[in-house]
Design goal:
It holds the Pfam family OCD_Mu_crystall. The chain is of the alpha/beta class. The protein has ten helices and 15 strands. The mean pLDDT is 94.
Length: 333
């Protein structure tokens, strides 16, 4: 029996790699392009809810990217009350495998990967569907993925005004302060959904609701806006899709099924179906479908989160770690 091992990258290892914003965006876009070219396999995510009393669940995401020669499985916990214990709401592990043999290749702390790849997908949605020039961003939600939404969108647009809101005043102010420091510009915490979103060029809803509640009003969406609702529980009105010229998702297979997701009621009521879905984002990335075509086009991008984004970003981190001598080699057999 040969000595078999795999690479382990923990949280400090990943922090130390120092991937730039452009590195993160490029890695996730490579996954999108592979998806658009039919070089991937995506299995719809599944959920494990150990006990409703725990107010949380696990998401299990699975996929394969042929050009990267990797299959991957990510398990991420999503626990709303973790802040009370000083823990992130989402903690994750990404397992990467050789798709030809099943041999483990790497195990990565995927908490930061989850946050970064979510923000990257939001920003790539804006690249293809958002206004050419956007001056105002309204962002609801302050969990880990929210930071990378704002940071990577600002990388794309360099906004004149950024407004943020979340349910807890201490959370939203701390979020605004962190962004102001890291982006080198004022970020304003506001005390209501309306003050945050109304009239913004780019509107992102990443809330942490415990049950569906229509807090995002359709009337706040101006013509030409780009809207990204992706909370686990729906925070939008059924009428939201009525004002959209184009609706795009990351993967229709996982968007059309399951009980969670911001547009679940729209799918179940027939307001969103294959008949009126414009495209998956990967189809736009490879030129199969058009992205934004007019300045006054109002567009919506709903992403549930792709296993492919995790695998692509994990691959980029693993490559940089190998080149830098970062990480631990663990014995497998």
């Amino acid at each position: 029996m040969h000595d078999l091992g795999f690479t382990y990258l923990n949280g400090p290892d990943i922090d130390g790699l120092g991937l730039s914003d452009d590195d993160i965006l490029a890695a996730v876009e490579r996954g999108l392009v592979a998806q658009g070219r039919g070089e991937t396999v995506i299995e719809p995510r599944v959920h494990l809810e150990p006990d409703p009393a725990f107010n949380g669940h696990f998401n299990v995401l699975r996929g394969y990217i042929a050009p990267m020669n990797l299959a991957g499985v990510k398990i991420v916990g999503d626990y709303v009350d973790n802040y009370k214990m000083g823990l992130p709401s989402e903690m994750a592990l990404l397992n990467l495998f050789d798709p030809r043999t099943g041999m483990p290749v790497a195990l990565l702390d995927a908490t930061a990967i989850t946050e970064m790849r979510t923000g990257a997908l939001t920003a790539l949605g804006a690249k293809y569907l958002g206004p050419k020039t956007a001056r105002v961003l309204g962002h609801v939600g302050a969990r880990g993925t929210a930071y990378w939404n704002v940071r990577l969108l600002d990388r794309l647009y360099d906004f004149d005004e950024i407004r943020v809101h979340s349910r807890r005043p201490d959370s939203r102010q701390g979020f605004a302060d962190r962004l102001s420091r890291d982006l080198g510009k004022p970020v304003r915490a506001v005390d209501s959904w309306q003050a945050c979103l109304e009239g913004a060029d780019v509107m992102v809803e990443a809330s942490r609701l415990t049950q569906p509640e229509p807090l995002f009003r359709t009337e706040w969406v101006k013509p030409g806006a780009f809207v990204v609702p992706y909370g686990t529980m729906s925070a939008v009105e059924l009428s939201l899709t009525d004002v959209m010229d184009k609706i795009v998702v990351d993967d229709w297979g996982q968007c059309k099924g399951g009980k969670l997701g911001s547009l679940r009621a729209h799918v179940e009521s027939g307001k969103l179906s294959e008949a009126n879905l414009h495209a998956e984002l990967c189809q736009i990335a490879v030129g199969e479908k058009p992205g934004r075509e007019r300045a006054n086009e109002t567009t919506l991008f709903w992403h549930r989160g792709l296993s492919l984004s995790d695998i692509a970003l994990g691959h980029a981190m693993l490559e940089k770690a190998r080149a830098s001598g970062v990480g631990q080699s663990l014995q497998y057999a």
